[in-house]
UniProtKB/TrEMBL annotation:
This is Helix-turn-helix transcriptional regulator. Gene3D superfamilies: lambda repressor-like DNA-binding domains (1.10.260.40). The lineage of its organism: Bacteria, Bacillati, Actinomycetota, Actinomycetes, Kitasatosporales. CDD domains: HTH_XRE. Residues 26-82 form the HTH cro/C1-type domain. GO terms for molecular function: DNA binding.
């Protein structure tokens, strides 16, 4: 299963979570080397929408925020796993 598949699978979960601050969301995505366009595709929004969220210009809907939080968590775990293997 690829990182993209994992993100998509976890983004489909319906667990309520709190989002990190916008700048932290952007850092998580960039650390995972996922473009805003790719993340938007996974979440069913445009890359521009993801960038607006990351700048704090707009807030995701409740449904999207759950999927976004799950995707961010999956990206954090993936980055941690890569760093662990590289160490």
């Amino acid at each position: 299963m690829t990182i993209t598949d994992q993100i998509a699978e976890l983004a489909a979960a319906s667990v309520s979570v709190k989002l990190p601050p916008p700048a932290k969301c952007r850092k998580i995505r960039r650390d995972a080397k996922i473009s805003s366009e790719k993340l938007g595709q996974i979440l069913g929004v445009s890359g521009q929408t993801v960038r607006y969220w990351e700048k704090g210009v707009r807030q995701p809907s409740r449904e999207r925020s759950v999927k976004y939080a799950e995707a961010l968590e999956a990206m954090k775990r993936a980055v941690a796993a890569v760093r662990e293997v590289a160490a």
